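I hope you will forgive my troubling you with a question about protein structure. I am sending you one protein, given as its amino acid sequence and as whole-number tokens for its backbone shapes. Thank you for your consideration; the sequence and its tokens are set out here:
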Amino acid sequence: MISYARQNPEQQPDGTPPPAEDHIAPAPRVSVQAFCETVETAGAVQSAGEDRRLGKAHLKIQMGGMAAAVEAYRSAPTPNVIILETEGRSDILSGLDQLATVCDSGTRVIVIGRLNDVALYRELVRRGVSDYVIAPVSTIDIVRSVCNLFSAPEAKAVGRIIAVVGAKGGVGASTLAHNVAWAIARDLALDSVVADLDLAFGTAGLDYNQDPPQGIADAVFSPDRVDTAFIDRLLSKCTDHLSLLAAPATLDRVYDFGADAFDSIFDTLRTTMPCIVLDVPHQWSGWTKRALIAADDILIVAAPDLANLRNTKNIFDLLKASRPNDRAPLYCLNQVGVPKRPEINASEFAKAIESQPIASIPFEPQMFGSAANNGQMIAEISATHRTTEMFLQIAQRLTGRGETKKPRGMSFLSPLIEKLRAK
């Protein structure tokens, strides 16, 4: 797979991660060796190796550039991917010719150079180079270049994982996750699956009025059987675009898992579903931390009190530090406006978290209680309620999709009204 040479177009001037639309699929378990000439490039490659999307890759860095690579592979097999940094034009082509004599078939080569030259790029393509990146490079450039080698352009896009977690128990994170997933499937027409990860007490089956005989427990306790066909059999269809991987919600087993227990399930879901919403229980273990860090987007749900503020900040700060090349987590306030309850307002939350909440969902016990007891979504009870609109806005923010509703009919006065508004 050949990628066009580029000069960091998506990187922001202040070095911040790329925008939400820049979705990079994780790389598989591959070996990557980099031969750098500058300390700056070596540092970018080192940081890339710590990115979650290269978490399965085995990365090794050496200095010396093209000459060191040629010498290293005279007596050793080449890895899946070689990253080469080089300075000039002539040493690139001659070095590649020498490397070709010792390089194993199937090895993919990424060249980092300083010449932005179409003729050079064509020569590199002719010699079988997979990607050419213009220096100086950033961490996200390396991540994107390596990951794109294993994303065939004709293949279905790799699914986006959205993790929803509560800052505290009982704040309504599961209810919000299920309603947002409903909006993604119904209003955005995006094929989605909800994975209920609270195996002991999960409520997704109740909220969607489903009682499937099988679910996520069958997959997590049989990791050797997990593949696309097996996962498809476990899915319960809720609507045309929404499926459910339900939790058993029974206590006949103890659900103690290793940190990587859900990896194969998530990897398989990525290949079959454009959107995966994880309903993450409020607990802190190896696998919950791993699921949050590995997600493409994260939503923290908090109630407006001090404990929720502390927990939201702790989760927010940890995820930002663990995912330096990703979008920052998002958070929303739920159950806002409980009568006679002192609350911390949204501005105080934003000041402490250093980020604005994407929504403040009002306390509506009658409507939410009726929906829960009837196994319905809020949109099914009241399609025009303001909370239904909030769920759609959250869905759009998490998926990077814009407005989908049809605009209202324009009258002959519309241009005049728009001019008056502008003034």
DSSP finds 17 helices and 13 strands in the chain. The CA atoms of residues 334 and 361 lie 5 Å apart. The domain at 31-148 is CATH 3.40.50.2300 (Rossmann fold).
